[in-house]
Amino acid sequence: MAKRKFHTRICDVLGIEYPVIQAGMGGFSDPPLVIAVSEAGGLGTLGAAVYEPDTLDAAIKEIRRGTSKPFAIDLLLPDSLKDMEGVSKEGLMKYIPDNYFEYLKELRKKFNVPDNYHSNRGGALWTSEGTKALVQVCLDNNVPVIAAGLGRLGWVMPECRSRGIKTIAIGANVKMALKHVEDKVDVIVAQGYDAGGHTGNIGTLAVVPQIVDAVKPIPVAAAGGIADGRGLVAALALGAEGVWCGSMFLLSPEATVTEGQRDRIIAATERDAVITKAISGKTLRQLRTPFTEVWDKGPMPPLGWPFHNLLTLDIVDYAYQHKDQKQYDEILVTPASQATRLLNRRRSAKKIIDDMIEEAARVLEEDLASKVQLR
Ligand SMILES: Cc1cc2nc3c(=O)[nH]c(=O)nc-3n(C[C@H](O)[C@H](O)[C@H](O)COP(=O)(O)O)c2cc1C
Predict the structure, then answer these.
(1) Ligand 1 pocket check for 123: Cβ under 6 Å
(2) Does the bond joining 301 to the residue before it have cis omega, within 30 degrees of 0?
(3) Chain centre to alpha carbon of residue 55
(4) Taking a C-beta distance cutoff of 8 angstroms, is the pair 233, 211 a contact?
(5) Per-residue pLDDT tens digits for 277-287
(6) Ligand 1 contacts CB of residue 24 (under 6 A)
(7) Which of 351, 230, 338 is CA-nearest to residue 275?
(8) Residue 223 in contact with ligand 1 by CB distance below 6 A
(9) pLDDT in tens, 17-48
(10) CA distance 209 to 17
(11) What is the pTM of this model?
(12) At 55, which helix (H) or strand (E)?
């Protein structure tokens, strides 16, 4: 069968075949998923949140060995980095009040994390120097696209422009999207509350057209609960020219996800993809776990970013390192969107994209025309 054409302006801007961008998912979208998505005609995106400069450099080289097509690296660039110049990960920990460490002891006991375990993760995610080093690795490798999953790209833009690197930034409201206009990024993602991961508080249906109107003529990719061809068509109807999808890819074999997580994603219903501050201190939509339940019902208000994330790091990383044991697998962080019941099929990344495009084309050509009488 001839390949179906499904082309928008975002395809031209990013050099891809289909207007489907696989969203950056730190710890979930590593080279195998990025390669599979880009090879399938979408834009694969590596979630760099769990990488250090050396491992990011190796991952970019691995992606390049796997595909010659465009791909993106998703970085977290919060404004707070400015205030953290010269502060190390250990230095940041000093800002966490003692009573939080006391409470952490209780939690460690409850979730069987030994007192003497300390995560050896480097500081790239939280420190200003670490983040700058990750950016530099992307620039040195001349990656095709840099995305900012959090924060702004302004200070990186001159380097990106001079190297021909395309840029994507996310807005959960018009105010944030207008900052990306000021930065002159190439594509703006308008993301709704429905999304998996860190979210804003406006629903996808409401936020996408408002951002489209505000940022014209910059092309917009819609995000938040979009998980099939109907979602892609709806995004186009709202004025977007593509989609940025994370949760949709979690059940693909190329995503970095345990079998236990896959089973829980398939079993999830409307009750399960909750907003919690238990892991990062910022509103994050993920499947509820015994850990989120305990934190959310517990006595301590969350700390801000990045302190809360640093506080819970030992529990999160110990669980990850022991995920072959059920008790730890069950507390793994599994961000997922509100489209829980659409996330129920194990398919390759290529099949997910092909199905989305086929369905979107059918909805456009047949379903809508048969549903609406215009005369
Ligand atoms: C499992 C998972 C992990 C995520 N990790 C990150 C991350 O590390 N950095 C980031 O900017 N966004 C992250 N996100 C958010 C996605 O980039 C994207 O904005 C979101 O998935 C879009 O909504 P959807 O899940 O409804 O498709 C994550 C989302 C998911 C589902």
Answers:
(1) no
(2) no
(3) 19
(4) no
(5) 999 999 999 99
(6) yes
(7) 338
(8) yes
(9) 999 999 999 999 999 999 999 999 999 999 99
(10) 24
(11) 0.96
(12) helix 53-66
